[in-house]
Sequence to fold (565 residues):
Amino acid sequence: MRTFTSRQVSVSAVVLVLLLFFPLVARGSFPMHVMIMLFMFAMMGVAWNIMGGYAGMFSFGQVAFFGIGAYTSSYLLVTHHISPWIGIFVGGILAALTAAAIGIPCSNLRGHYFAIASIAFGEIVRIQFNNWKLIGAAEGLTLPMLPESFANFMFHSSKAPYYYIILGFLLAALIVCYLVATSKMGFYFRAIKESHEVAKVLGINFVHYRLMAIMISAFLTAMAGTFYAQYILYLDPESVLILPISVQIVLVAMLGGAGSVIGPVIGAAILIPVSEITRVMLGHKGTGIDMMVYGTLIMLISVYQPQGVWGLLSSIGRRAR
Amino acid sequence: MSALCLEVAGITKRFGGLLANDAISFAAHDGEIVSIIGPNGAGKSTLFSCITGFYPPNAGTVRFRGQDITRLGADRICKLGIARTFQIVQIITDMTVLENVMTGAFLRHARNGAARARAEEVLRFTGLIDKQHMAATALTIADKKRLEVSMALATGPTLLMLDEAMAGLTPVELKDMIVLIRQVRNSGVTLVIVEHVMEAVMELSDRVIVINSGRKIVEGPPAEVVRNPEVIQAYLGERYHAGR
Fold:
């Protein structure tokens, strides 16, 4: 049973307080940017974990939901002046419906086959959006400059509001994941991950529950997409619909520890700073050395800690007790 | 005689050119223990899968408490009250014993606390309560089989179908399993079991059905069936007969 130990609660509380004060002490915009990306990928890792870590559907197509979220709210804002706070829910719902539409024909696919189908799905959405005139095709969409306010979901003088918003989103995603994991749904997801046979024999309609997992995951990922559009204020298919974003989401969850609520956050806390810092320090040389450093780290973790970093931490915790 | 629980009529299942089940019919009444025996490859497990919705039969009908369930999916059949186990144990490997049984209990108890209470009740009944916090994979074969039975019971069945629940058990474990199956029946659950261990079949069964090459050859009380020359030739062998 997943109940928290008092130590876990106190560590989380301390970390949360430190995170709340971070914008007050951070110097320059780069550390803030890294933290914002960290929270955003952690949120998407948590969303991936619901379908991948718990229900065993290894999606490499999450970027499609991210893109649908980003494009939906941006399109509504650009053409109809609809608030992104409404657009974020419309995007979430559209992503969830798309997820259901793709999930039903894929409901018998497992393991590698599901992963392959999900890559294809992500690529189809990218190519579609690249040629879709209504939403700017390859030129993308530029969001209008509006006065900065929470209502407009737009801030120019400081990154701090973005920081707090995405931190809030991440906490919301963690709460959703925790509620799912400890309920009937979470147990059913884990049964489905084991095998469709064991699920069926326990009376579980696996098609129904797989769809639930995909739709929850898609909704949360689309929310991150809207956030990203509001943060960058510009989007095109080659920035919000590319496969490397999907891969990054999977890595964050897998390296942190798939199948535990907090795992993806730990994964993001390690990978995102490394990826951003190596990109800034080494990326401009055009030698690809940043990707080499990044790739080496991933290989080391997968070889020495296949359970993810969380697996390592919890086994240390068990020994200490 | 008590009410009909399960009624199987003319079940036929073909895999390409192989006729795995050839128009098999039988029935189980409420509170009975019916055993299905026969040599390896006779079609016993296929029959189980046709009844429980894992395979669609090519012909024939399955009725459960009067309702036609022939074309229903396995999960729907489970909801109606038929639970089964597999020849190769099917458990959720990354869960504890309690969590496995809770997953079954969620079928009739939506809330976490109620499912947990039901799971603990089942584990006390099956004698695994002291191992509830162990990882399911850490159990012995006998306990894994017991766990699978617990998961099946947690779904609240009125008919339990066990596919070789005794295979590979030591004599002591076998005795324990026989006791457990009796307890299950005494709790009001009807049982249909596929079994090779004749000791258990003789002790438990009200009726025995013998299948060979996909066809039912004999049906009757266990003492009668083991004397049947056709059964001896197809399955038991002369030596078993001589030993009786």
Summary: Strands of chain B lie at 4-15, 18-29, 33-37, 59-64, 67-68, 82-84, 159-163, 190-194, 207-212, 215-220. The two ends of chain B are 30 Å apart (CA to CA).
